[in-house]
Specification:
Keywords: Transferase
Distance between the termini: 32 Å
Shape: elongated
CATH superfamily of the largest domain: Crotonobetainyl-coa:carnitine coa-transferase, domain 1
Largest sheet: 6 strands, parallel
Number of helices: 18
Protein name: CAIB/BAIF family protein
GO molecular function: CoA-transferase activity
InterPro entries: CoA-transferase_III_domain, CoA-Trfase_fam_III, CoA-Trfase_III_dom3_sf, CoA-Trfase_III_dom_1_sf
Pfam families: CoA_transf_3
Helix content: 25-40%
CATH architecture of the largest domain: 3-Layer(aba) Sandwich
Length: about 400
């Protein structure tokens, strides 16, 4: 087994879809015990977000991507007996994670104010679209609309003046995934603080806050200059040349990060005169004269295939790379060497292929040992172990539809 830095931490996960489950999968990979609470007979919506599906269990690939290492327990939180079970579980948990609408759990007495009376040192993380306060607090938030509202789509895509121009979302749920990672980071900080102070924490995370927070250099470009950044396609606002170029047989990403690399590129490409041109001698000048430089690079780059450029430029230390489809990604020698595709045993489908957690401790990737659970797979085991419920009590709760 790899290192489990969060071993002994128990998380009651009331979240679903992606941002919350991405957070709790990270915690599970780091060794926490994650109890995923799901509605009996229904479960996380993403279980049905297919095709594609696993052949036997019919679990959707979407669900499989965010739920490794968890235990699925089905409890009807709308039922008073179900609420009582969850209240008992909370008392043995360190963390509660939820992504309901603002105030949505108060009627079940599963909100922070209700639960902290049962466990004063509880760490409670709420993920919403817009946060717990403000004019948009009651709105539902979804990744696509957050990418638009938070400015990312204004930076992504070709300029309006070019063919195919217009705003484009990122190809994965960018805001959801970043929010999940911020949530995991915040929870671990709260655990460390609790160890020092003995106090619990309420964590308020909003997708919109996260999306604005990760605008990074583009946000500072605007705040520093007052100029609104525009879409540049594959180009970079602060570095030139730093974009994709057509080659003889495809495309090459050229990522020239400094003036020395630019000169070595020009020497390799047979256009050393560009490195000596007063307009292009520094990165700042190349950014200023982008519209003049880029057309001058198009023809030299078309003279070789992508693989020929990769070999030639790597030999002189100029950063570059191909644009791989996912089949080529998982066949890439570096991806294979790093073990980024993993398998886990599955109770109905034999095994399931997953993507490895990229974190390594002492050379070992941190991945939970179990596949994403079947709906309710661990209900009896968890309630028996954590609440000392007898087999007879479990049968009675099932007959009443509580679990």
């Amino acid at each position: 087994m790899p290192a489990q830095p969060l071993q002994g931490i128990r998380v009651l996960d009331l979240s679903r879809i992606l941002a919350g489950p991405w957070c709790s999968q990270q915690l599970a990979d780091l060794g926490a015990e994650v109890i995923k609470i799901e509605r009996p007979g229904e479960g996380d919506d993403t279980r049905r977000w297919g095709p594609p599906w696993l052949e036997t269990s019919r679990e959707a690939a979407y669900y499989l991507g965010a739920n490794r290492g968890k235990q699925s327990v089905t409890v009807d939180m709308a039922n008073p007996e179900g609420q009582a079970l969850l209240h008992q579980l909370v008392q043995s948990c360190d963390v509660v994670l939820e992504n309901f609408k603002v105030g949505g759990l108060k009627k079940y007495r599963l909100d922070y104010d209700s639960l902290k009376t049962l466990k004063p040192d509880l760490i409670y993380c709420s993920i919403t679209g817009f946060g717990q306060d403000g004019p948009y607090a009651q709105r539902a938030g979804y990744d696509f609309m957050i990418q638009g509202m938070g400015g990312l789509m204004s930076l992504t895509g070709q300029p309006d003046s070019e063919p195919g121009g217009g705003p484009v979302k990122v190809g994965v749920a960018f805001a959801d995934i970043f929010t999940g990672m911020y949530a995991a980071n915040a929870i671990m900080a709260a655990l460390l603080q609790r160890q020092r102070t003995g106090e619990g924490t309420y964590i308020d995370l909003a997708l919109l806050d996260v999306q604005v927070g990760v605008l990074a250099n583009q946000a500072l470009n605007y705040l520093t200059s007052g100029d609104v950044p525009q879409r540049l396609g594959n180009a970079h606002p602060n570095i030139v040349p730093y974009q994709a170029f057509a080659t003889r047989d495809g495309h090459l990403i050229l990522a020239v990060g400094n003036d020395g690399q630019f000169r070595r590129f020009c020497e390799t490409a047979g256009c050393v005169e560009l490195a000596d041109d007063p307009r292009f001698q520094t990165n700042a000048l190349r950014v200023q004269h982008r519209a003049e430089l880029i057309p001058l690079l198009l023809e030299p780059l078309r003279q070789k295939t992508t693989d020929e450029w990769l070999l030639a430029l790597e030999q002189v230390g100029v950063p570059c790379g191909p644009i791989n489809t996912l089949d080529r990604v998982f066949e890439d020698p570096q991806v294979k060497h790093r073990g980024l595709k993993i398998t886990r045993p599955h109770p109905q489908d034999g095994e399931v292929q997953l993507v490895s957690n990229p974190i390594r401790f002492n050379g070992e990737a941190l991945n939970a040992p179990t596949a994403p659970p079947l709906l309710g797979e661990h209900t009896d085991a968890v309630l028996s172990r954590c609440l000392n419920l007898t087999p007879e009590a479990l049968v009675s709760l099932k007959e009443k539809g509580v679990i």
